[in-house]
Write a structure and sequence with these properties.
Elements: E1 10-14, E2 26-31, E3 34-44, E4 47-51, E5 61-63, E6 67-75, E7 82-84, H1 88-114
Antiparallel strand pairs: 1-6, 2-3, 2-6, 3-4, 4-5, 6-7
Length: 115
């Protein structure tokens, strides 16, 4: 989940009902035998599409029973300071990042058509 969560940081997870999850939330999910903390980028009823913040590819469709909880905070590896990840600021930063990502993809696509 770079750059939001660095390797070695401790994440704090709170159980949550699937109907309370929103686009932009970071969730801890189980995919096969591995665990991932990824962000919800789309929601379709009780199914979710997630992706790491630095990732290009999604994890595919995730069922609500694969989600173990919402990541509410991280503990910085160096300072041991607790940083909230479930508030308005975190969601705003995600949506701003998504807007930049989409704008960049649009510009690249337009440049390809103009060549």
């Amino acid at each position: 989940m770079l750059p939001t969560i660095q390797n070695g940081e401790i994440v704090h997870v709170k159980p949550v009902a699937a109907n309370m999850l929103r686009i932009g939330d970071i969730v801890l999910l189980r995919s096969g035998s591995e665990f991932k903390a990824h962000r919800i980028i789309r929601k379709r009823g009780q199914r979710f599409i997630t992706r790491g913040d630095a990732g290009v590819d999604t994890d595919g469709e995730i069922r609500c029973d694969q989600i173990l909880g919402r990541v509410i905070a991280k503990e910085s590896i160096n300072s041991r300071r607790l940083v909230r990840l479930d508030g308005v600021r975190s969601r705003f930063l995600f949506f701003a990042s998504e807007a930049r990502r989409r704008a960049a993809r649009f510009v690249i696509a337009r440049e390809g058509k103009d060549s």
